[in-house]
Every structure is written in structure tokens, then in C-alpha cells.
Amino acid sequence: MGEMTAHVSLWVLPVSGPPIYNGAVVVAGDRIKAVGPASELLKGFQGEIIDHGFGAILPGLVNCHTHLEFSALAGRVPPQERWEDWLQLTLAAAPKLAPEEKKKGIRRGIQALKESGVVLVGDISNTAASLPFLEASSLDYHLFFECLGFDLLELESLEEAFPFFATSLAVDNSCISAAAHAPYSVSPALFKAVRKWNRVRQRPQCVHLAESRAEGEFLTQGDGFFRELLQKRGRWLPEFSPPGLSPAAYLHSLKFWGPGTLAVHGVWLKARDCALLARTGAWVVLCPRANAYTGAGTPPFPELLQAGVPLALGTDSLAGNHDLNLFGEMLWFYQKYRRYPEGRWLRLGTLQGARALQRENDFGSLEPGKKASLGFIPLSREKGFWEELYTRGAAGEWRWLS
After folding, report:
1. Residue 54's CB: how many other CB atoms inside 10 A?
2. pTM of the entire structure?
3. What are the strands, taking DSSP E only, across 126-231?
4. Rounded to whole angstroms, how far apart are CA atoms 237 and 227?
5. pLDDT per residue over 252-283, tens digit each?
6. Residue 376: which H helix or E strand, with range?
7. What percent of the chain has pLDDT over 70?
8. Residue 141 has what pLDDT?
9. pLDDT-based confidence at 383, cuts 50/70/90?
10. How many angstroms separate the CA atoms of 183 and 209, rounded?
11. At 2, is the pLDDT very low, low, confident or very high (cuts 50, 70, 90)?
12. Please, which residues have CB within 8 angstroms of residue 168's CB and are 6 or more apart in sequence?
């Protein structure tokens, strides 16, 4: 197990339990041995004691939704008032990136995640270009290989249209899943193939859901922005008949939802959609600053919470957000919803994210047996520290301890 080290600070934030004043975390090797008040854990302790002083020790963060392959677009797609305008600009800019630019951007994105306290990331990829960089980094990851195909009407298997899923790389790596892009870009046959591939292997899956008002209009009326977009990209099917359902209800009709499914954004979900997702056990990953940046809107957090939908956090990409710092999302929630418990937002960015990615045995909280992925944020106040914690975290004041 190796020698033990005790990390001590004014506060320890286990996440799975209440904050511990004058707390300590004992680490043996790469695992947590004990968590509790320093006065108890240090009695007779023979290992090294490191006192970090006035601040808080907390677990590494879990960012459930990024697009590292878009990192090279940082600063090239400005904030927009309409999500449709942001999408058009991004679709125009992405193909212009040179291969080396993309690689450099991925490295930059991974470094940004690490520096802001992320230990586990859920990354969306259309090419698996980020995979070798993630494997070479100290980040733990879950890669969602994203599938698009509005015009794939007949599909016997996912491997038929996407050979990547037949490779040993995909089959043998439990940290790789299939993902469906969105209801307006994926056919019913492709949704079913994605679901089957993941469920056979018991892996999580994800989909962009209700990110724009136009998505709901397309599924109920069959026209508007997405019909025009599909026509421009040569993917439109003249025989398409809109299902006449909300995005959440449409995917429910395809049996896509379940406890292992992550619905990302959910900006335009109605109360009945939230209730439906809660019944199925599906997760919603919230990216509020990204939604503001792209002009998508504001996710209905109170409705999701009231319905009992399990929630986690993401930042989306550097093409659609100012940074990849998950504390920025926590601070956004703290400032907007002050009537809620102040520690809730840290839980969404740690333990809830680990559960969504099915990695809670290793990450998300400070508990004996979990990986010792500890960080520290300095504080100037002894009490009422939550706003300062989120503010300092968002300002990049995270420091890794182990």
C-alpha cells in the first residue's frame, strides 16, 4: 500500500458528506485511506503530515461534456444571440482547421481541464482524434464516439455504418461508447443501433437534447432551420414525416432512455419532458455558460430538480464557451439560484458527474478506497466560504495535491 501521507486544511469537502472543519485526508499510495477531523486521524499517525492551511481540500472535478476536437476554434467563433447563428459559424469554421491546429487544440483543451481541477472528462468525438491524447495524459476519460446519419434508414448494425465500432480499440476499451448526435441528425434506425451497441456492453451513451427551440419545431412540424440545414448538407429525406413529439418524447418512443443515458443541454425541456426523463432514469448534463455563449437559452433547472432528474455538469467546447473551467458553471448556478443549498453545485461537478459516467467507485468524492485525486483552493474566510470557493476556482486557483 505504501507510505501514508495526511493532507490537512481548514476545510475538507468530502462531497458525500458535510464539510469537515479542520479536516484531514490520509492517502496511501494512490488511494484514500481515511477522511475526517484532523484531531482524530492524526492521533498516533506515523506518516508525513502536510498542512495546507487556510483553504479547502476537495475531490477532482468531473466534466461530463466536452468537445476537445473543437478546442482549436477558441476565439474564432464569438458569442451569439441565436444558437442557429452560432452553429452555422462553427460548421463553417471547423473544416478550415489544419490537422496540426486540431492536435494543438486538443492538447490545449486537455491542459485546460487539468489546470482547472478536472480528473475525469466525458469527451465527444466524431473521429476519435482526441483518444490518443487522452490516453497519453493523466486525465481519466470516457470517449463518446458520436454518430450522425439522418438518412440512414436501414441499418443492421452500428458497425455497418461506422467501422470504428468493429475495431478491438472500441470493443475492448470500456471507456469508449457510441453516442447519437441529436434528434434532428440521427435516424430512428441509427438511434436503435447506438442503443444496442452500448447496452450489449453495458456502457453509458449520450445525445444532445432540446438544445434549441428549432429542434422541437422540426420534430413537430418537419420544417424550419433544420430542414434547411439538412437540405444544404445533402441529408434531407423528402419522405420524412415529423413524429409530432417533443425531442424527449420522440427518443422515448425509440426506447433510447435509461439510467445509462446522458441527455446534454436540455434547454427547451418542458415540465412533462422532465417528468418523462425522471421516470426513465436518464441523466441531464447542464452546460449553462455554454448555452448563454451560443444563444441557446437557459436550462430549466428548477423543473428538472422538482421532477427528480439526476443532473451533472459539462462545459461543452472552446468553440462555444469562454473556457473549460467547470467552476465557472458552478459559480453561474450559485449566483442565479441562491435559495438552494450552497454545496449542491460542487456535488453536480463531482459525485454526480462520476455517477453519470459510471465511475463513482473511483471518483467524485473523498471516501476511503477511492482514488486520491485531491485538490486545494485557498480561502480568506473561515465561514460562509462557498461563494469564494466557486469564485476562486473559476479564477483558476486550483492546486493539485495528489
Report:
1. 13
2. 0.97
3. 140-147, 176-180, 205-209
4. 9
5. 999 999 999 999 999 999 999 999 999 999 99
6. strand 374-378
7. 100
8. 98
9. confident
10. 7
11. low
12. none
Which position has the grid cell 476537445? 68
Cα torsion angle, 57, 71, 147, 159, sign: negative
150-189: per-residue pLDDT in tens? 999 999 899 999 999 999 999 999 999 999 999 999 999 9
Is 50 exposed, middle or buried (CB count within 10 Å of its CB: 0-12, 13-18, 19+)? middle
Cell 442557429 belongs to 84
What Rg do the C-alpha atoms of the chain give, in angstroms?
A: 22
pLDDT digits (tens, 9 = 90+) for 222-236: 999 999 999 999 999
Dist CA 345 CA 13 (whole Å): 13
Q: So what's the pLDDT on residue 95?
A: 95
Among 227, 218, 223, 275, residue whose Cα is nearest residue 252: 275
Alpha helix ranges (H) inside 256-397: 271-280, 288-294, 301-307, 326-336, 344-348, 351-356, 386-394
Burial (CB < 10 A; 0-12, 13-18, 19+), residue 46, is: exposed
Which DSSP string corresponds to 241-265? ----S-HHHHHHHTT--STTEEEEE
17, three cell numbers: 458528506
| E strand segments, 54-169 | 55-59, 61-66, 118-125, 140-147
Cell of 144: 463518446
- Strands (DSSP E) contained in 80-161 are 118-125, 140-147
Alpha-carbon distances of 28 from 33, 60, 110, 149, rounded to whole Å: 6, 17, 27, 48
Residue 382: per-residue pLDDT: 85
Task: Give residue 389's pLDDT.
Answer: 98
Between 386-394 and 326-336, two packed helices, what is the crossing angle to 10 degrees? 140
Buried b (16+ CB within 10 A) or exposed e, 1-31: eeebbbbbbbbbbbbbeebbeebbbbbbeee
